[in-house]
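Please decode residue identities from the backbone states below.
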């Protein structure tokens, strides 16, 4: 049975939609031993963030991305915000020992930022 992994989506814009779509469909494209569970989406659009969550199947929504990243039921932080925010968000995810996914910052760069040894 696939292991459930909790996803937090940071950003509820176009990339938030694109990545949510990816999480929903990944097991149709690939034989993965994980089942993504869309736990929470964070964004600044207070009027529509709840609607985004409902439309894409997230269990909840928030305006506070740090609160979302800190949740115990979240395993993977998917960053879909403007690029200048990725560094801070990825570092926060790493501090809470979450996995993260971002296009603008590769794991090797993050390790350098965090001064972690390359494995
Ligand atoms: N749209 C594309 O086709 C595309 C393709 C590749 C890369 N990108 C890059 O992805 C990034 C996002 O693009 P987009 O089109 O989804 O933008 P967008 O403006 O549609 O969405 C950005 C989202 O980030 C959220 N956000 C902004 N500041 C935040 C903060 N401080 N805390 C929490 N959430 C915050 C906004 O509320 C919004 O939901 C951009 O940097 C863009 O260059 C976009």
């Amino acid at each position: 049975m696939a292991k459930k992994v909790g996803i937090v989506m940071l950003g509820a814009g176009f990339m938030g939609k694109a990545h949510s779509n990816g999480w929903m469909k990944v097991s149709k494209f690939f034989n993965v031993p994980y089942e993504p569970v869309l736990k929470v989406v964070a964004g600044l659009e207070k009027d529509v963030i709840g609607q985004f969550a409902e439309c894409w199947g997230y269990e909840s929504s928030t305006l506070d991305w740090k609160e979302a990243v800190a949740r115990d039921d979240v395993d993977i932080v998917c960053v879909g915000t403007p690029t200048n925010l990725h560094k801070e968000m990825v570092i926060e995810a790493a501090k809470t020992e979450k996995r993260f996914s971002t296009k603008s910052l590769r794991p090797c760069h993050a390790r350098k930022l965090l001064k972690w040894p390359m494995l």
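Observation: The CA atoms of residues 43 and 50 lie 10 Å apart.
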